[in-house]
Sequence to fold (461 residues):
Amino acid sequence: MSSRWIDRLRHALGFRLALWYAVIFVVSSLAVTGLTYFLLASSLQQRDREIIENSLTEYVRSYREGGLAALSRTIANDQAAGRREGLFVRVLGQHEQLTFLSMPGPPSEFDLGRLQTPGWGIAPSRRQNIVLEVASVQLADGTLIQVGKSTESREVLLQRFRDVAGLVTLTVVLIALVGGTVLTRSALRPVDHLIEAVRGVTRTGRMDARVPVRQTGDAVDELSGLFNLMLARIEALVEGMRGALDNVAHDLRTPMARLRGIAETALGETRTPDDYREALADCLEESDRIVTMLEVLMDISEAETGTMRLERRPTEIAAVVRDAVELYRDVAEDRQLTIHEDLPPALSVVGDPARLRQVLTNLLDNAIKYTPPGGRIEVTARQDGPDVVVSVADSGTGVPPGDLPRIWERLYRGDASRSERGLGLGLSLVRAVVHAHGGKVAVESTPGEGSVFTIHLPSGN
Ligand code: ADP
Fold:
């Protein structure tokens, strides 16, 4: 993924978020303003209609009681008292003779031509964008009494509301845009840091970049923390693999030189066919040794760097130990050694049975190699707190105190061990595999009396 592409995506994402934020903000404020406007307009209309209806009822009663004269008096009283100002009141006689009793504005203002029927009617203004709302009642004698009210005052109020709402909406849009941009920027800042870190890693190949964690506890913060953890893990793995590769290359140099030496010596001068055969057999043996060594070195490196594939499952330790002991029973008998077991059942660990068997066979192999004939080997297992502890004790040569810290090192072989077969890798593999299982190893040894190798493994119970 090119950095320009990431940049574009980031900006597009930031822009889209800000835009969405602004759109939602503006749309919701428009909806609220619109609803308020609608409610205000309809309640104003409702109020006007109530005034018209009440006035009409009263004027009809007045007309019925005393005719046109009484109605005129009522209207004059209303006007003198400052009530029902600005009302349109008209009486349409039987023979269509007109009597205007009250009229808001000049008579020519509204087009009254279509107001000839009872019920609600509307007369549009000839000058402005307003109307005259009129309610009419027809009396038994055919007289039509009409009361109306201009929407002008209502319109003035609504126009003012529209002006204010427009101003408010403009302010809201500005706030939404600025707020959206600020919020998006601050929300995307951790993402920017992530991108910076990824860029650094891809550009330099170095894994020591870290993203600042703000300790806010939100999802992005958690992602940053996990990202740092992942980088640390990858860094450790890469370092481990690099070290392992160096070690393997270094450790193979000696046997490779030995192999080359055998071939060089054989080719150095003319020899008999038997000499060549012997040299070839040595080469073969040495190359087998190298292959075995390479395999074990790779196993150790994988276990140490945490890349060893372990098929972990609940495993009964007694069964694993018994399998390993059975493998060595005959060899031990040949060397006149006795193997004793003290293995309580139902001791279980979560681990890879094949790898654990390999640990046990390595320890037994050593015990047999370094114990003189007539000796005794004892394998025991026990529960110790959260651990299962397995010990392999022998009555062998023991390890000199000075050698004890070094026996776990790769390729280390004690001086007294040179006569025995071995690569000096057995204990390194034991330690690496036990550590990969979350356990630990220990040794106690007294030269001339014997050694006790102990492994602690987290219990599976
Ligand atoms: P190897 O046995 O191939 O030499 P290991 O890594 O298994 O390599 O052991 C390293 C060294 O530790 C041995 O060379 C030996 O000196 C010492 N050692 C290991 N196990 C025992 C034992 N049971 N008794 C005495 N010495 C031992």
Q: What stands out?
A: The longest helix spans residues 3-80. The chain has a mean pLDDT of 88. The pocket of adenosine-5'-diphosphate is lined by residues 366-367, 370, 394, 396-399, 407, 412-414, 417, 422-428, 451 (CB under 6 Å). The helical segments are 3-80, 152-204, 219-268, 273-305, 317-334, 353-369, 426-436.
